[in-house]
Write a structure and sequence with these properties.
This protein is an alpha/beta fold. The chain contains eight helices and seven strands, in the order ααβαβααβαβββαβα. Helix 3 runs parallel beside helix 4 and helix 3 packs parallel to helix 8.
Length: about 190
């Protein structure tokens, strides 16, 4: 065991593994989508538990990818993988150098970029999400960064009936993505 593990600290277990294939590029993901793309974009999510939960909900709703900026975001790590419960391996997580530019590229592909903001005039439920759409959510507390907000085609809010002003980003992502799934499954909103 020591020889296979490369030392005495093996705890009785040795595994032989091969590296995962490199994640796809945004173009690779979009070119491989059958039907209208559904993307989740996270702006400023730095907590690995939130990212893991967002990946899990993205997988459950059938999102084709999750995008985030390389700066102001958490990368894939052991905590993210554990919380994601397998979704870190099934949903492409693409970290882009410039989020506003990536959103512009989505727009060039006729993907509607929908940001979430508590002061938006329209609610999520008034929007047709059956076409190509990227749902953009910001970090808890600070929300979308100003440039990201300006780059969105439109802004929507989640209607809130209680005393709290906002939801955890993974909960909000679940609501948004599953509303898109509901509309796509039932042919309307």
């Amino acid at each position: 065991m020591q020889r296979l593990a490369g030392g005495p600290r093996h705890q009785g277990v040795v595994a032989r593994v091969t590296p995962l294939a490199a994640k796809h590029s945004l173009d690779d993901v979009l070119d491989g989508v059958d039907g209208p793309p559904l993307l989740l974009v996270l702006d400023g999510v730095t907590d690995p538990h939130n990212l893991g939960a967002c990946l899990r909900v993205a997988d459950g709703a059938g999102a084709h990818a999750v995008l985030a900026p390389k700066d102001h975001a958490v990368g894939l790590n052991a905590t993210v993988a554990k919380v994601a419960s397998g979704a870190a391996e099934t949903v492409p997580y693409l970290m882009v150098t410039n989020l506003a530019r990536a959103l512009g590229e989505l727009k060039e592909r006729d993907i509607v970029v929908v940001g979430t903001a508590e002061d938006a005039p329209q609610t999520l439920y008034e929007l047709d999400l059956r076409g190509p759409v990227a749902l953009v959510l910001g970090a808890e507390g600070s929300g979308l960064r100003q440039l990201t907000r300006k780059t969105c085609d439109l802004l929507v809010r989640l209607p809130m009936a209680g005393a709290v002003e906002s939801l955890n980003v993974s909960v909000a992502a679940g609501i948004c993505l599953f509303e898109a799934l509901r509309q796509r499954s039932h042919g309307g909103h």
